[in-house]
Structure prediction request, 469 residues.
Amino acid sequence: MTRLVVLESRVQWRQGVPAAMLGLGVCWAGVLASVPAGVARAASPYLVFVEVMTVGTLFAGALTVTDRATGAAAALGVSPAGPVARLAARLGPLAALTTLGAAPVLLAGRHAAQLGAGLAAVTLCGVLLLAVATGLAARRDEFVGFMVALSAPMALLLAVPLAVSLGLLTGPLWFLAPTTGVLALLRGDSPYPAAGLLAYLGLWTAAALVYAGRRLRPGVPTASGRAVPPARPLPARPRWLVFPRADLRNVTRDSMLAAVALSPLLLALALRLGYPPLAAWLRHTRGVDLAPYSPVLALLAVAVHVPVSFGMTAALIVLDDLEAGTLSVVRVSPVGVTGYLAYRLGLVTLLSGAGLAVAAPLSGLVPGPAAGALALAALAGPLVTVATIAVARTRVQGATADKALALPLYLPIAAWWLTGPAGWLLAPLPTYWIVRAWPGTGPAYLVGGFACLLAWLIPLTAVALRRLR
Prediction:
């Protein structure tokens, strides 16, 4: 057991997991320390709940998928190390890092009084989420498929507590969701004793560990219960259709990847149907008018999020191909790595543009004159792809890179409120120009935005090519 823990800790250290998880907590603590005390106090529990507690699930899933793809999971399955020991070795360090990352965020958010019960809740809930992620990844051969599979349980476990904290859901029934009590303890406004909530959370955590342990056992049939059809060789001619046909086959065969392709439509429908009643409810019950913030929501949820999500997904697909050995075949094929990367970047640009074309008008939040800003936003997709590939060689490193890229990609949305010279501090970041190119700002920002994007895109593409060859 001790050797297994040491080995797992070394693997996580080499992949940069501790630096990423602790660095995330320190970064958010720095942000909270620089804002007014009232804002920091209100925001810190949500940052711990949504950001700090969930980041470990990406690493747990990436490590588990990698073990399965490399054959390490099969080897461990016949070794003396059982599922319990393997879970303890993997989830123990990740849960400890989650708790350590949450402490500075709570302190910077002026929640020192909640450190005791709050950190206990973070530890238990962190193990619960990590166990769910590990169980889902145990039968996945690709990291992208795991991430899509994880989205449904994570949305349920996070959405209910958030709705309760906003007053959208009331009554004790919603505390049946184990994570509702966690957020209440972090906020310091729990209507129930901390000991009872922690005991209830502990039962759910134990159930999640049992689920993960069963999924890690060898010889258990997959959840779908369907036999995988034998692979059919792709036609050799024409060569340029090989990758599109393979991707189309994967999407039609895997409903998870189909959900990724349809995500802009689903996001737009959620905004169209959910934002107006939410805004009306907040206005009538809390006296909060969201109308002045609708451009910021459009920038965040549509203009930036849609291309960034496609770009990150494309990067993880490339890293999946790299670790699975697909690129070894591509390197000696007539297509070559250059053709492969060109196809991936062209496809992510096309999907980003198509996703924005669907999500922007359907969401009801993006004005028609914002077409120029959306054209800039479409190029953010391939930029995210090459930026991730330029710094990552594995799925785990890709997950780390995606979390590290999130802050500089979303931070420039603050330029909406910044005036004068302070706003230009964010000018080196490409998404800054998407904000500035919003309607009524003139064409100069479009030109500056394209120049900034190309200044990042060209050298990062060259670096990505060198790393893939």
